[in-house]
Amino acid sequence: MRRTYFAVGALALVALLAIAGCGGGGSSSSSDATTASAPTETEPTESKAEAEPAPKPKGQVAVVKVVNTPELGKVIVDSKGMTLYDFHKDKGKTSVCYGECAAAWPPLLTSGTPKATGAAKQSLLGTTKRKDGTVQVTYDGHPVYGFVEDKMPGETNGNDFKGFGAQWYALMTNGEEPADG
After folding, report:
1. 135 and 111 Cβ atoms separated by less than 8 Å
2. Residue 62's beta-bridge partner residues?
3. Are residues 90 and 106 in the same domain?
């Protein structure tokens, strides 16, 4: 009997989180999944988003490395091989991506000085403090982010993508955007 209550409670919690993640009530279908995860310019602004903290790093130092992608060539990635992007709306080293933006484009956070391996350049790595107190990795002065639509290492689905008011681009080893971008 307790297992049944636990299972029902867990399902209710998952449903509530799914509704909250989609911006609240209203109907939704599986065809709307792309809309929910592919941000547009009309999504909520920073004022609401500032109240939602980004996930805290779990005592890990971020690692940046390089992979050769079929579409863009060599780009920087995190320790799991997931492509890292810059956001044209950021103000220098200051991130403006919080709340729903940070849920779709998770900032690469670190608990110490980030490390470069392979062809990534340690001299281009840095950090910036976010409004929520976390420390985000920068590469050549750009705060860097993952993208939830990249499901496999080396995917670059976020390159030349417009969302949350500006363009997103993968970064090459020299800190520049791909020529196609």
Report:
1. yes
2. none
3. yes
Residues 102, 29 share a domain: no
Q: Which domain, by its residues, includes 31?
A: 1-37
Tokens standing for 101? 């933006």
Among residues 50, 59, 72, 64, which one has the least CA distance to residue 130? Answer: 50
For 104-163, how does the pLDDT look when each residue is reduced to its tens digit (9 = 90+)? 999 999 999 999 999 999 999 999 999 999 999 999 999 999 999 999 999 999 999 999
pTM assigned to the model: 0.69
Distance CA 67, CA 145 (A): 16
What's the pLDDT tens digit per position in 34-44?
A: 333 333 333 33
User: Do residues 24 and 62 share a domain?
Assistant: no
**CA 20 to each of CA 23, 24, 82, 99, 140: distance values in angstroms, whole numbers, following the listed order:** 5, 5, 26, 12, 35
Total domains in the fold of the chain: 2
Residues 122 and 81 in one domain: yes
In 3D space, the residue among 71, 73, 23 whose CA is nearest the CA of residue 43 turns out to be: 23
24 and 105 share a domain? no
Task: Check whether residue 78 and residue 9 sit in a common domain.
Answer: no
CB 82 within 8 Å of CB 112: no
